[in-house]
Input
Amino acid sequence: MSTDTTASVSTHILDTSAGRPAEGVAVRLSARPGRHAAWRELGGSATDADGRCKDLPALPEGTTQVRLDFEVEPYFLKKKAEAQQDAPAHRDSGAVFFPEVAITFAVTAGEHYHVPLLLNPFGYSVYRGS
Output
């Protein structure tokens, strides 16, 4: 498989509420060869101490759409538990507002797509990075 005929994907997560990378978030990568085709899960990874997934699987030839699924609930639950060791909870019932984030985007063969997730407990933003 040549990198000239396939797209490639990378991602990282920044927790904007803490001003730090989000470590330990599971990320799954899926792809499909067209809008009406079925999704094929390719595998996954977890973010490292820098919030990056450096080992996402390669995309199959013919991929035109990609989905990144971020399992953010365990990250926020762990973060909340660590914060409650120092101070009692004061804002909410303990439920995570966004338990997961799914980002779907189109790709073109031969291009690299870096898709960062900027995350906080009550919102998120994504963009095509470099």
Notes: Residues 69 and 102 are 4 Å apart (CA to CA). The first strand starts at residue 8 and ends at 15. The helical segments are 73-84.
